[in-house]
Write a structure and sequence with these properties.
Length: 228
């Protein structure tokens, strides 16, 4: 039986949803990493300072679904949120009022934002991977070649990452290769929440929008802020 919320009850619910945790004083920035939700909501998203969605947030061109998904993202308690376009997110890039829809969410595509002294830079889908000096956290939808990519990553991106040496690189796209590995100074995260085994057939199915519910818990990375 459904319970109808009173006006005061609804106000309390919205207040709980929009409560933002205070900035930590221990010098650590807690990053929560997700990707490839494809118009689906994960069962649970851990708390943190910055939520990063590395693309394929949407699924198709349904504006009603897009508004619902953005509403869900905005309701999460993280102090800052970053959204990067994937190959299924064309609807995001053609919205004339995107900034109004997103509110305080940072939409990054070949652009950057500094949060608590940490620089986040995102490469847009299909863009040439040029990574600015001083990038701490790199976000792309496509993986770099040879890293959690099932042989389908981008070699140009891999070379650019090797030169820029960000502390963290977050990506997705290749669903069955979800994982974490550290190579040199860089932590690489395939943050896809659909952790099924990937094959070429599965990639084709994904491009036809036959996407399962998210099946993996988001990664959390604790990044120490640089001293002022």
């Amino acid at each position: 039986m459904k319970t109808k919320l009173t006006q005061s009850g609804l106000a309390q619910k919205l207040a709980r949803e929009q409560t933002v945790p205070e900035k930590r004083s221990d010098g650590v920035l807690r990053l929560v990493l997700i990707s490839d939700t494809h118009d689906r909501k994960p069962a649970a998203v851990p708390p943190g300072d910055v939520l990063i969605h590395a693309g394929d947030f949407a699924c198709g061109d349904d504006l009603h679904s897009l508004r619902r998904d953005i509403g869900w993202l905005r309701s999460l308690s993280h102090r800052q949120k970053i959204l990067v376009p994937g190959n299924h997110d064309l609807i995001l890039t053609i919205q004339p009022n995107l900034s109004e829809l997103l509110g305080s969410i940072h939409f990054l595509s070949d652009s950057s934002v500094d949060i608590d002294g940490v620089r986040f830079y995102a490469i847009g889908w299909g863009s040439k991977p040029i990574i600015p000096a001083g990038t701490d956290v790199l976000i792309s939808h496509c993986p770099p070649a040879g890293v959690l990519d099932n042989g389908m990553g981008c070699p140009v991106l891999r070379r650019a990452v090797a030169e820029a040496r960000p502390r963290v690189h977050v990506f997705g796209h290749i669903h069955g290769c979800r994982g974490h590995v550290q190579l040199g100074l860089t932590h690489f995260y395939n943050a896809s929440l659909d952790a099924r085994q990937t094959s070429q057939a599965a990639v084709v199915a994904a491009s036809s929008h036959t996407i399962s519910l998210p099946t993996a818990r988001p990664w959390v990375h604790e990044l120490r802020r640089r001293p002022p």
